[in-house]
Specification:
CATH topology: Jelly Rolls
Mean pLDDT: 91
Largest sheet: 8 strands, mixed
Strand content: 15-25%
Radius of gyration: 19 Å
CATH architecture: Sandwich
CATH class: Mainly Beta
Structural class: alpha+beta
Order of helices and strands: EHEEEHEEEHHHHEEEEH
Shape: globular
Number of helices: 7
Number of strands: 11
Length: about 300
């Protein structure tokens, strides 16, 4: 595993969640993000109030879900043990983080702003090394993101993270190589596409929120095959990255093979973005997979 971080991180000296920075820094960050780097913001903490710090406790989790999730579109919280006013206060924290993350992306990447679609936020209060889950849900294994119940239909998955640990613990990731190499390794040699009508049936039954495209189906396949491949999990990582408390980072998690291997207490906000909003749509996973599959996969 190589140890240099320069190939995988693009650091910005940003201290404001408005995303305000010189145009040259915005251009550098956008080029890095779309090419598969992580935009690292070492001096951008998300400050918790004294009252909010009580949520940095594994007991706020119900012990069943990996993370506590919040849907800002409905106000629903999943995975939490809290009730009543405490549950409402946790929702308010996650909503506040989501708004900060949206302001950050809109300011830093103004061309994205009009087409950003906010998704779920999450609080990750349980230490990574204490979570027990199935292979497919095990985020300590290298993977790119694909959501079984939330088809993206070719859109990008753009995520903002903040390490809010108050005990000094870094969040540690392993990252893999280029998406094209990952896809070339795990794309099934014989592409057996879903049965006609399968996507409509899953949506009608409520298994998925919207119809899966062939792109969604392939991304789920890549995700599962990578996590199940023991050799790839042993040899696929090419760098280990440490995100200290008080830092934040931005990543296209559908593009960068990653695994979270250590840490506790982080906030995350997911966004979806149409590839038409990108500076270079040709570097999106959709376009890369369409070249490999030699057919259109969404739309």
């Amino acid at each position: 595993m190589r140890s240099s971080h320069h190939e995988y991180l693009e650091s910005l000296d940003l201290c404001d969640w408005s995303g305000a920075c010189p145009p040259a820094d915005r251009e550098r960050a956008l080029a890095a993000l779309e090419s598969g780097k992580i935009v690292f913001l070492p001096r951008l903490p998300f400050e918790l109030t004294a009252e909010e710090r009580r949520f940095l406790d594994p007991r706020v989790s119900d012990g069943k879900a990996k993370n506590i999730s919040f849907d800002p579109r409905t106000g629903a919280i999943g995975g939490a043990s809290l009730t009543g006013g405490e549950r409402d206060a946790l929702a308010a924290l996650l909503r506040r983080f989501g708004r900060a993350a949206e302001g950050l992306l809109s300011g830093l990447f103004p061309d994205y702003a009009a087409q950003l679609e906010i998704g779920r936020a999450s609080l990750r209060p349980v230490s990574i090394d204490r979570r027990r889950t199935s292979c497919r849900k095990d985020d300590t294994r290298l993977h790119v993101d694909a959501f079984p119940s939330q088809p993206v239909q070719g859109r990008r998955i753009l995520r903002v993270f903040a390490n809010v640990n108050t005990a000094g613990a870094a969040r540690v990731w392993r990252v893999g190589g280029p998406f094209a190499d990952y896809a070339g390794r795990f794309l099934p040699r014989q592409l057996l596409y879903p049965m006609p009508g399968a996507a409509a049936a899953l949506a009608w039954l409520g298994v998925t929120k919207g119809r899966r495209t062939v792109y969604d189906w392939l991304m789920l396949s890549l995700h599962d095959r990578a996590k199940a491949d023991a050799d790839y999990q042993q040899t696929g990582a090419i760098a280990e990255l440490r995100f200290p408390p008080g830092s934040s980072w931005i990543v296209y998690s559908d593009l960068v093979p990653h695994a979270a291997i250590a840490g506790q207490h982080a906030l995350e906000q997911t966004f979806y973005l149409a590839i038409a909003a990108m500076r270079d749509p040709e570097v999106s996973p959709l376009r890369i997979l369409e070249v490999l599959a030699r057919r259109r996969l969404a739309g």
